[in-house]
# Entry
Amino acid sequence: MAFGKRKEITNRLNGRPLEYKVQSATVSGSILLGIISLIAGLSMYTYMLTMQYIGDAFDLTRSAAALFERLVQYDQISNEVMSRYRAMKPLERNMTGTEAYRSHFKDIEDSLAYNVIYDLLSQLHGSSDVGDLYLGYYDPDTQALVYICDTDTNEETRFYPGEWEIVERKEVERFSNWDGYGMLYDMGSTDKYGFMVTAGTPLVDANEVTVCYVLADITLSEVFAGIKNFLILFGLALMAGVYYTMERMGGRMKKMVVDPVNRITHAAQSFARDYSSGKTGTKHFSELKIETGDELENMARVMAHMEDGLGDYAEKLSGAIAEKERIGTELSLARKIQADVLPGIFPPFPDRTEFDIYASMTPAKEVGGDFYDFFLIDDDHLALVIADVSGKGVPAALFMMASKILIGTQAISNKSPAEILEIVNNMICVSNKEQMFITVWMGILEISTGILKAANAGHEYPVLQQEDGTYALYKDRHGFVIGGMEGMEYSEYEIHMKPHQRLFVYTDGLPEAQGPDQQMFKADRILEVLNANKDADVRETLEQMQKAVDEFTQGEPLFDDLTMLCLEYFGAEGNRPILEKTLPAVSESITEITEVIEGLLDEAGFGTREKMQIDIALDEVLSNIVRYAYGGKDGTFTVQYSFDEDSRKASITVIDEGSAFDPLAKEAPDITLNVEERPVGGLGIYLVRRVMDAITYRRINGRNILHMEKKIRSKKEQ
# Structure
């Protein structure tokens, strides 16, 4: 292409210079980011604020329902009010709100039982932020909400016993047909109260029939006010942020991108002109002195090298890039093949409850020489293998895969670990021209008895959990490495695994991991990490160990492959929880886990009252964690559920890593006192202790562990 043609194209491109495009992109991106952030932030804020108000109201009704079921004969009052309401003729009902109408229910209002209900509701109402707290019944025949007891002190809006108001059909159906899952509430706009939410919890009699509802009303005016303030502040912040971003990014992009690109372009034009004229030895690019510290600086240097030797450089560069891509592709493929060879799905045997196992392998290079393996030889025997091949890289990986296949093949023949290692050693020694070797620890667990037979071919000592829960090295007898010498014999030993006992095996990459000061991780630190996490499951155990190694090495590259395997033996029958779930410590997680637990309680055969009591206890415990455990910071909680068929008892364990709090240490509140006289707090925990059959608390390794139990009772026992 002629130089004149190049100049023509360059001049045509200058119609919209890069500086204009950079500025335009910066402005557009900043505005778009601001709009997206505003929409996302407003949506999240609105949803979270609304659900917080609804959740608080629903929690209040559930707590009130629990108190009423224990302390108050609400069914008599409710049945009497509804009996008189239904006995009225339509003309009499239409007089609701008048003194004549109220006289039909005056004796109920003056009764002792009604005043007990009213006082209890008033105390709960006074300690909450809801607009109104009352008892009512949704009558599907008249599509009306009939009030049983209302704590509203405003005479203009208060409803007396038996008074009613028409509500929408969907609200009646929602409350009448509630299945007990999730939060029970209705949201809508009314002429009288504005935009309002009614949350509630049914109260049932001895025959599990709903006699009325504990209801709480909240208006969403505060939500709208919060949204308005949020919108104003967020909008102003976004405007300032967008303007600042446009100014700063525009100028920085011009300095860091546009100007260097223009200088490189001018140098390229000069180089092209000289190159076309046959002039060599120019220094157009090397004289630019671009020091941006990024690809543009590198580009200028590359162009300078190209200018010094264009032909040879281009040819060598193309060859080097092709070779690098080929090697990278082959290594990536080798690493993928190696990863696919190792078991990588956990839990590996989800239908087996007698044990749990987890393993990991982190290569020091693209591919490694370590490997682990575990597989069922038959229904009653589990094979465990962990090994370390001498050397690193592709040769070690190939030797590793061959060794893994040989060990697995021999294990299927129902041989003992010692016999397997002896046979594999002889097979490898026959054709081991490269004189590579491998250390192996192998065990075969008899699942029905817990007897683990094992042999060690020059590998690291395994770590075994003791009866008191602590970990200690099991100093077994080491045989010679596999591949070192033909005809070697290996000693075999037995370990009788007890229920919930754990075994931890590893390669030398763990104790020999080095920090910046060249100090090694060593076996003592391995035991220290394991004993600090005695209650962790097998996955958490390896994750905590990997975290400890990362903190110790402080980013230093691994000297050797790091492989770990952890086995927990639960026993022949299996003792693991039916459910174990870890969730963020937020309100939404409470609803999610409560729904799951309710489904499991249904499967176990719990009645409505018992499920509601368990729901109340679980909700109170989790709500305390969400609100107080982490002091406003992010956190999680773990819920474990199990059910014993023999004792017909459900067990729920709640674990969090928040601040220490023993709910059993707090004295039960005196509920006979008025709200003003009674100290704040303690009522929720009191409810938990009342509705559950047993509750215990422990603080272990910085974690709060609360265990609750509830037994299915017959109708007679209830």
Remarks:
- The radius of gyration is 37 Å.
- The chain is about 45% helix and 20% strand.
- Confidence is low (pLDDT under 50) at residues 1-15.
